[in-house]
Design brief:
The protein is mostly beta strands and 165 residues long. It contains one helix and 14 strands, in the order βββββββββββββαβ. The longest helix has 5 residues. It binds fe (ii) ion (FE2).
């Protein structure tokens, strides 16, 4: 991956010391300055919300799992994409493993249970829906036992962006 040390002597401007800037609808995030937040009710799962756009029903985020952690089985009510940045992970329902550089495209209707191998994992992910509903949480019989909507992600937003002139 990119070597941050190569930037040490460069003047990187405002984002070097500020997690977020905003100019109109344009947002930039220095994700290195955003803290991981533990995901409620999902041990070993962490999130950094990068940008949340309620107008376009979209959320972009980094997602991290500790070694051997799982996330609840769920059905997507949105289009989801994920680019694996670190570690090796998979879905309990499949044989495939994802590793750094793997890109995943998951249309609405995909149901699965993501888990990390012994390496843990970090992905960049983006959900884009047609309403504020993003995921349905499923039990072992595929009955819907909960919903995750944009409000769920909003609770993990750490701070408001700095408005640039
Ligand atoms: Fe998913």
């Amino acid at each position: 991956m990119f070597d941050l040390n190569a930037l040490a002597n460069l003047d990187l401007g405002i984002l070097a010391g500020t997690a977020r800037t905003r100019y109109g609808e344009i947002q930039n995030v220095n994700s290195g300055l955003v803290e991981w937040k533990a995901v409620d009710g999902q041990p070993g799962n962490y999130i950094k919300v990068l940008a949340l756009d309620p107008v376009r029903h979209r959320v972009d985020f980094l997602f991290k799992q500790d070694p051997h952690a799982s996330f609840a089985r769920h059905n997507h009510v949105c289009t989801a994409v994920a680019l694996t940045l670190e570690g090796i992970w998979g879905y309990r329902e499949g044989e495939e493993l994802m590793f750094p550089g793997t890109f995943s495209y998951e249309p609405s209707g995909s149901a699965h249970t993501p888990y990390a191998t012994g390496t843990g994992m970090v992905v960049y992910a983006s959900f884009q829906g047609s309403s504020e509903k993003m995921l349905e949480i499923l039990d072992e019989n595929d009955q819907v036992i909960g919903e995750l909507n944009l409000d769920f992600f909003a609770q993990y937003q750490d701070e408001m962006p700095l408005v640039a002139a």
